[in-house]
Write a structure and sequence with these properties.
Keywords: Disulfide bond, Immunoglobulin domain. The chain is mainly beta and about 250 residues long. The protein is built from two helices and 22 strands. The strands form seven sheets. Strands 2, 5, 6, 8, 9 and 10 form a six-stranded mixed beta sheet that branches. Strands 12, 15, 16, 18, 19 and 20 form a six-stranded mixed beta sheet that branches. Strands 1-4 form a two-stranded antiparallel ribbon. Strand 21, helix 2 and strand 22 (about 245-250) form a beta-alpha-beta unit. The longest helix has 14 residues, at about 230-240. The termini are far apart.
Length: about 250
């Protein structure tokens, strides 16, 4: 027993500049004549598009929205197409897309060079126009990153090994386009100049006395958060001061 209605051509997502005109297409087959109705959704509000009852939906891009098409037959059977995204780029540089653009990927946002502390999040962004909408693949030092296939590359806790040269490839059925390559530096925290100066003033004039340097680390890269390093540093510093030590306390 075959389905009453079979969609033979699904609409496809696109990524286009504001004001660009194109057509979403949906095709289906059924046992009776079929009726089409398009819907759009923006900010979680879904509405029927008045008069959009053809297989093709002409659109002049104004804002990013989702679209789907409902197909029903004379027996009250109904199916919906896939939801597709029409992503609209409001600010596109002059000369983009090229005048004879056929929908091949065009990069409109390149990632930027960054310096990130170890353990802090790393986020890189890119964006490309394309019809159909491009898929994305990130690379580091020329090596494909299996789990980074979105416009945004996100690493929750950066490691030194995440340093390197990053770029992204945007591709669709018309071809591919690469972003600029950017260098990403992951390293340890550096002392702000004022804190560095305060530490020098505390430690070096007292170099002939008894000095205790206490470091309370709560956030370890490969270890669960400890229960009370801050409290421990505070209590230990009181004890050492009673024993005649000059105490310098550093946290995280």
């Amino acid at each position: 027993f075959s389905a009453a209605i079979v969609i033979t051509e699904q609409p496809v997502s696109v990524s286009v500049p504001v004001g660009y005109s194109f057509t979403l297409r949906c095709r289906a087959e059924g046992r009776t004549s079929l009726q089409y109705q398009w819907f759009c959704q923006q900010q979680s509000v879904c509405r029927q598009i008045p008069g959009a009852t053809n297989q093709d939906l002409p659109i002049t891009a104004q804002q990013t929205q989702l679209y789907t098409c409902r197909i029903n037959d004379l027996y009250k059977n109904a199916v919906f197409s896939d939801w597709v995204k029409v992503e609209v780029h409001q600010c596109v540089a002059r000369g983009l897309p090229p005048r004879l653009w056929r929908g091949e990927p065009v990069i409109v946002l390149n990632p930027t060079e960054q310096r990130v502390e170890v353990g802090k999040p790393l986020q890189l962004q890119c964006a490309a126009m394309g019809v159909p909408a491009p898929s994305y693949q990130w690379y580091r030092n020329g090596n494909l990153l299996e789990d980074q296939k979105k416009k945004k590359l996100w690493i929750t806790h950066a490691k030194v090994s995440d340093s390197g040269t990053y770029l992204c490839c945007a591709s669709n059925s018309h071809g591919e386009h690469w972003t600029n390559a950017v260098d990403i530096h992951i390293g340890g925290a550096t002392w702000p100049p004022s804190e560095h100066l305060q530490l020098c003033c505390l430690v070096f004039p007292l170099a002939t006395g008894k000095i205790a340097l206490l470091v309370g680390n709560n956030r370890y890269q490969h270890h669960p958060n400890l229960m009370a390093p801050v409290t421990d540093v505070f209590e230990l510093s009181l004890l050492l001061e009673q024993l005649g030590f000059q105490v310098v306390s550093l946290l995280d």
